[in-house]
């Protein structure tokens, strides 16, 4: 009996929880907390382009690097090299970047040559010389036919940032030609013997140390940099310097929270509503859910893709199950140093499920960012409409809503709108559908000192609209069509206004809102970009529960060069050899 009573009490509670949910139940269907909200795919063409630009930047920057002093024990003593400079560099004649499933890439270079010069000091404990006699001089070395082969595994650290780990390295130097000029009185015979000794002993050590240096850069320095990658960004950032922040070269950002939090929903200009919403403290969390992986020659990254207030999370629903098509159209060549990019083959694919938009809408609703107060000043279209006494055009709310004009002549009308649950947006083929449930309170404003603001109407409303978006240059624009607009009258102080007459407002309101929403969408939203990365010919399409942006891109090579100098410079300040 107690079980039945408990069950009887629980059923209404459970049902009430379902009914009182503050978001659409559709967002709980066919979802999983393990699903990504964002899916980024770097296509083979993009990787081939990165390989070419990377090689070009290395070729341009390598002679600008400041090499560290070297102090190396050898079998019979110690050699110190200082004032070391690279005087000439011959770029590798062959190089390649190859992907291997599940998560490995291999970088190889061959037929590369270096010429370096510097001063040396050698202390040799040998029967040929007194143990305490140092040998000093100047040398010039030519390292010919250098080849490198490096394999790296892509991983994810505990915080969701990318991580790399070297899994193999082979280096070889085809030959070493060494010229030594001594400043002392040592004979040419000894100089030649010493040169032969250095070539025979130093060449294998240099080959070994080259791999140790590269492995140290990958396993230590690169992961230190990657661990600093910002994993949360404000959605009002149009030009993200994620790379610069990761490499520690980006300028510091100023705290704009005070300015942003001062935004008021009172008397806003409706056409700027979307931009003002972006200026709220809404933060995108794009930490990776899994390690990057290789599929069909492309690198894939799955990110959380949640937008929440100040990045605190807490979205009560999960991303939907979506079917991302396998990479295709990979018309590229990777061999030697040849690269062909065929027309029509994009370089990056960006997928975002409608979870990205719905999480933003949910937290905007929870923070009351969607609640607005509008009046005649909020839009040019509203100037002659939200009044009780019509102007020359002869049409206004005073004429349309019963005896409003007679009861409250020469007054402005103010409407407070508030969302009653989180809006819903669903991506479908070729468009998106938007639904909004809200309430509105209608007031007449005072026009004389003796008058007060007075509430005259209270209602609920539901709007369903179709939204089309596309990319025009670097701006996302669109249009909207209202599919349905319903009003439910709750209270009124206006004579001759009942549910039937008030429902007719939906016919006019739909046309007005359609024009207003289209005007807002036509203002456009700047497509977020990354500092140093220029998007070329981006294309946006809608699919079942996700949108896709495919694009070419171009790197700012000067910016990339500054990153290389900064990153490698930090590494070379430590002992490498």
TrEMBL record:
Keywords: Disulfide bond, Signal. Residues 41-272 form the Lipid-binding serum glycoprotein N-terminal domain. One of its GO terms (molecular function) is lipid binding. One of its GO terms (cellular component) is extracellular space. Residues 346-551 form the Lipid-binding serum glycoprotein C-terminal domain. Transmembrane segments: none annotated. Residues 1-16 form the signal peptide. The keyword Signal applies. It holds the Pfam family LBP_BPI_CETP_C. It comes from the Eukaryota. PANTHER family: BACTERICIDAL PERMEABILITY-INCREASING BPI PROTEIN-RELATED, BPI FOLD-CONTAINING FAMILY C PROTEIN. Belongs to the BPI/LBP/Plunc superfamily. BPI/LBP family. This is Lipid-binding serum glycoprotein C-terminal domain-containing protein. It comes from Caenorhabditis remanei.
């Amino acid at each position: 009996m107690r079980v039945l009573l408990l069950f009887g009490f629980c059923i209404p509670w459970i049902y009430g929880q379902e009914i009182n949910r503050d978001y659409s139940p559709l967002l709980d269907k066919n979802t999983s907390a393990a699903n990504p909200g964002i899916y980024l795919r770097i296509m083979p063409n993009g990787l081939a382009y990165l390989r070419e630009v990377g090689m070009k930047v290395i070729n341009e920057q390598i002679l600008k690097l400041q090499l560290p002093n070297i102090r190396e024990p050898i079998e019979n003593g110690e050699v110190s090299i200082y004032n070391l400079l690279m005087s000439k560099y011959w770029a590798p004649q062959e190089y390649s970047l190859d992907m291997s499933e599940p998560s490995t890439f291999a970088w190889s270079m061959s037929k590369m040559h270096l010429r370096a010069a510097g001063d040396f000091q050698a202390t040799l404990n040998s029967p040929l010389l007194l143990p305490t006699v140092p040998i000093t001089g100047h040398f010039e070395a030519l390292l010919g036919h250098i080849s490198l082969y490096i394999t790296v595994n892509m991983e994810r650290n505990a915080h969701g940032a990318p991580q790399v780990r070297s899994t193999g390295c082979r280096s070889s130097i085809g030959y070493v030609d060494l010229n030594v000029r001594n400043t002392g009185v040592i004979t040419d015979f000894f100089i030649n013997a010493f040169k032969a000794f250095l070539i025979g002993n130093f060449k294998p050590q240099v080959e070994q140390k080259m791999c140790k240096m590269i492995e140290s850069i990958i396993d230590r320095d690169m992961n230190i940099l990657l661990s600093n990658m910002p994993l949360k960004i404000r959605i009002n950032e149009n030009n993200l310097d994620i790379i610069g922040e990761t490499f520690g070269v980006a300028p510091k950002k100023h705290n704009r929270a005070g300015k942003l939090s001062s935004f008021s929903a009172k008397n806003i200009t409706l056409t700027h509503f979307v931009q003002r919403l972006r200026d709220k403290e809404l933060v995108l969390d794009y930490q990776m859910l899994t390690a990057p992986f290789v599929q069909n020659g492309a690198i894939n990254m799955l990110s959380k893709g949640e937008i929440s207030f100040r990045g605190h999370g807490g979205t009560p629903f999960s991303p939907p199950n979506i079917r991302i098509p396998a990479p295709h159209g990979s018309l590229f060549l990777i061999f030697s140093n040849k690269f062909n990019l065929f027309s029509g083959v994009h370089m990056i694919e960006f997928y975002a499920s409608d979870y990205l938009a719905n999480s933003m809408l949910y937290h905007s609703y929870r923070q009351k960012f969607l609640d607005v107060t509008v009046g005649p000043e909020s839009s040019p279209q509203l100037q002659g409409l939200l009044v009780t006494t019509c102007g020359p055009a002869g049409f206004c709310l005073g004429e349309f809503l019963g005896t409003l004009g007679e009861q409250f002549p020469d007054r402005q009308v103010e409407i407070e709108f508030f969302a009653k649950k989180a809006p819903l947006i669903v991506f479908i083929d070729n468009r998106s559908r938007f639904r909004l449930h809200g309430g509105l309170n209608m007031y007449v404003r005072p026009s004389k000192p003796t008058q007060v603001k007075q509430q005259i109407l209270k209602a609920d409303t539901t709007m369903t609209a179709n939204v089309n978006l596309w990319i025009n240059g670097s701006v996302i624009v669109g249009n909207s069509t209202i599919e349905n607009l319903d009003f439910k009258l709750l209270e009124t102080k206006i004579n001759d206004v009942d549910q039937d007459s008030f429902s007719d407002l939906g016919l006019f309101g739909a046309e007005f809102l359609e024009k207003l929403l289209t005007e807002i969408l036509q203002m456009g939203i700047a497509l977020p970009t990354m500092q140093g990365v220029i998007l070329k010919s981006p294309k946006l399409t809608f699919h079942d529960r996700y949108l896709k942006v495919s694009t070419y891109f171009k790197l700012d090579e000067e910016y990339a060069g500054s990153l290389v100098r900064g990153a490698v410079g930090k590494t070379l300040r430590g002992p490498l050899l």
